[in-house]
Amino acid sequence: MAAITLKDINKQYGDGFHAVKDVSLDIADGEFVILVGPSGCGKSTLLRMIVGLEDITSGEMLIGGQRVNEKAPRDRNLSMVFQNYALYPHLTVFENIAFPLRLSKTSAKEVDERVRHAAELLELTEHLDRKPANLSGGQRQRVAMGRAIVREAQAFLFDEPLSNLDAKLRGQMRTEISRLQKRLGITTVYVTHDQVEAMTLGDRVVVLRRGVVQQVATPRELYENPVNLFVAGFIGSPPMNFISATVVDGRLHTPFGEWTLPESRATGLPGREVVLIGARPEAFEDASVVSDTIREHGVVFDANIDVIEWLGNEQYAYVPYEAPEDIRAQLAELERELDSEAMRTQLVVSLDATSRIPEGTTASLWLDLRKVHVFDPASGENLT
Ligand code: ATP
Predict the structure, then answer these.
(1) Which residues form a coiled coil (predicted)?
(2) 255 CB less than 6 Å from ligand 1?
(3) Residue 90, Cβ density class (10 Å: 0-12 exposed, 13-18 middle, ≥19 buried)
């Protein structure tokens, strides 16, 4: 097992495309780190540079304290688990797991011991004689991990391993990978474009945009304190709502009325004329179900509710809203980049299951102002 250190790593492809820009990252021994971001942000390139499948244009990469820039993949002792698991269909589970040991001419006795030990860890013992075709997707995944275990690799690297699976199996595998990683304590770097995987699996998450690291933080920190509009919009589903506001004498003039932020949230307002207020769906509530003591921490305003989605434990209410002209272009770009829902034209509000607001009516909503963020619409920076 080993720590992985990236120092000012850059990747420029042959055609001059700058895919990874000045990435520095310290991954601790045993840590589970997720690289996440929309398609084309450079996450696979970064992973491939760690494995050694891609040259590093500039910067330094250390694994276990040793510089590996010039080392071939096989000399890095890392184990990569791909989407398709790369299992040999004609070999049994035993032989698939044993494969790397056969290559290194390990004695038959030791092969047997190590494969059985890995199979036990992965709960594959009873399937050792089967062929991959007769395994479930989850079991195949574990065989691929078994190979990494017998090699005693310094780290596991995963490139979108679950993207071919259906939603249910993906959920199960997520839990399984998380459990195994904790049990084995192996340094793991995991690439995904799925923010749910990023939030549920990692100790820390690295959010990438156009080759540049935006934020490195625990899932909770990313959710609660996103550094900019991009991270705020990417993490969370349904996404954060963005409401434009002009600042007049420290008060916010919004399409939903005049609001005064509590001191803790208002630090970014002085000197600003226009800001974007970010509020997650759960910062809102049906005003009629909010108690008086809680109500004073927020504002109550009228909103047209055109659609309600009932989910049993909560409901999503959709509020049509037209972002003003000057920020529409920026939100449109964010929507496109994040492949996200319509941020320019609606708010998505989460309501308590007990709320009885009918669709197609104007209702009184409450927004918890202690939970809002203030963004600079031009730079996207979170000013809160
Ligand atoms: P995805 O989720 O779609 O796989 P990604 O974040 O993993 O995306 P990369 O595969 O790392 O993205 O690619 C990052 C950028 O580098 C993309 O714009 C891609 O087109 C570009 N790129 C990748 N490989 C090459 C190459 N060999 N030559 C030139 N550009 C490349």
Answers:
(1) none
(2) no
(3) exposed
Domain final residue pick, 203, 227, 251: 227
pLDDT in tens, 162-183: 877 778 778 877 888 888 888 8
CA end-to-end span of the chain: 39
Answer whether residue 85 shows pLDDT above 70: no
Distance in Å, CA 41 to ligand 1 centroid: 7
**Segments forming the whole domain that contains residue 83:** 4-227
Q: Tell whether ipTM is more than 0.85.
A: yes
User: In terms of Cα–Cα distance, which of 53, 218, 339, 375 is closest to 207?
Assistant: 218
Ligand 1 atom with least separation from CA of 47? 11
Dihedral sign from CA coordinates of 174, 176, 179, 185 = negative
Q: Does the predicted model carry a pTM greater than 0.80?
A: yes
Mean pLDDT, range 112-130, rounded to an integer: 93
- For a substitution probing ligand 1, which of 41, 190, 213, 337 has the most ligand atoms within 8 Å of its CB? 41
Which tokens belong to 113?
Answer: 């011991």
Is 43 a pocket residue for ligand 1 (Cβ < 6 Å)? yes
Residue 383: inside a domain, yes or no? no
Task: Give domain status of residue 381, yes or no.
Answer: no
Question: Ligand 1: does its nearest atom lie under 6 Å from the Cβ of 212?
Answer: no
Q: Is the CB of 19 under 6 A from ligand 1?
A: yes
CA distance 334 to 230: 7
Q: Print burial letters for 169-199: b (CB count within 10 Å at least 16), e (below 16).
A: bbeebbebbbebbeebebbbbbbbbbbebbb
